[in-house]
Specification:
Length: 223
C-alpha cells in the first residue's frame, strides 16, 4: 500500500534511527563516565599514555597543561563541526526562518487572515528547515563527545594525582586549589575560561574563510 495514503504511517528511516541511537548511546556513555569513578579512571589512564608525555610536563605546570589541552580539545571539536557543517546553507536557512517568523508576526498584528492562511500553509516547509539545522547539530554531537569525554576523563585523573601541585596562582587569585569545588571543580572553570574564548575565535575564523570562499566562487561564476 502507498505510504502517502492517509492513515498509513511512513516507514521509519534507518539512517535517522541509527543516528538517534548513536546520540543516545553517547550521552549514556558520558553519564556513566561522569558518575562511575572506576570507568573514568580507566579511560583517563589510557588517554594519559598520549597526553601525559606531551602536555603533562610531569605535573609541574598545571595551568599550562590546562591551556594546551583546552586548545587541543576545542580545535578538534570545532574542526569536526567545520568540515561537516554547511555554514552558508545554515545562514541562508536561518535568514529564511527569521523572515518567515517576522512576516507571520506582522500578519497576526494586522489581523490579515488571508496572509495568515497562506503563511500557515507554508509553515511546515519552514519548520522543516529549522529542524534540519537542529538535526545537523545533533548528528555532530556524538563525534564531538568522543573527543571531549576522553580528554576530560584524563584531566580528572591527572589533576587528582597532582597533590600540592594542584594549588596554583591565577591573575585574579592566589593559592587556588584546582580540585576544590565551586559549583564545578576549579580546574573545570579554569579550563572553560581558556577553551571557550579560543573556540569562539577559531569558529568565527573558519566561518569567515568558508564565507569568503563561497563569495569568490559566486563572483567567478558571475564573470
Amino acid at each position: 500500500m502507498d505510504a502517502t495514503v492517509p492513515g498509513v504511517r511512513p516507514a521509519p528511516d534507518p539512517k535517522k534511527q541509527m543516528s538517534t541511537f548513536i546520540t543516545i548511546f553517547t550521552f549514556v556513555l558520558a553519564m556513566f563516565i561522569l558518575f562511575d569513578q572506576d570507568l573514568r579512571h580507566w579511560l583517563g589512564t589510557i588517554v594519559g599514555y598520549v597526553f601525559e608525555p606531551t602536555v603533562g610536563f610531569g605535573g609541574s605546570m598545571p595551568v599550562v597543561t590546562l591551556f594546551l589541552t583546552g586548545i587541543i580539545m576545542t580545535a578538534a571539536t570545532i574542526l569536526v563541526r567545520h568540515f561537516f557543517t554547511d555554514y552558508v546553507g545554515q545562514a541562508e536557512s536561518q535568514k529564511i526562518v527569521n523572515a518567515f517568523n517576522k512576516e507571520f508576526q506582522k500578519a497576526r498584528l494586522e489581523n490579515n487572515k488571508y496572509k495568515i492562511k497562506k503563511l500557515t500553509e507554508e509553515q511546515p516547509k519552514i519548520m522543516k528547515k529549522s529542524m534540519e539545522m537542529s538535526t545537523t547539530q545533533m548528528k555532530l554531537m556524538p563525534l564531538t563527545m568522543l573527543v571531549v569525554i576522553p580528554i576530560f576523563a584524563w584531566l580528572s585523573v591527572w589533576i587528582g594525582t597532582l597533590g600540592t601541585a594542584a594549588v596554583v596562582d591565577v591573575p585574579w587569585a592566589s593559592n587556588v586549589d584546582l580540585n576544590a569545588l565551586n559549583v564545578f571543580p576549579n580546574w573545570v572553570l579554569l579550563y572553560s575560561l581558556i577553551s571557550i574564548p579560543f573556540g569562539q575565535i577559531l569558529g568565527r575564523a573558519l566561518r569567515y574563510v568558508q564565507f569568503r570562499k563561497r563569495l569568490r566562487t559566486i563572483e567567478a561564476q558571475a564573470i
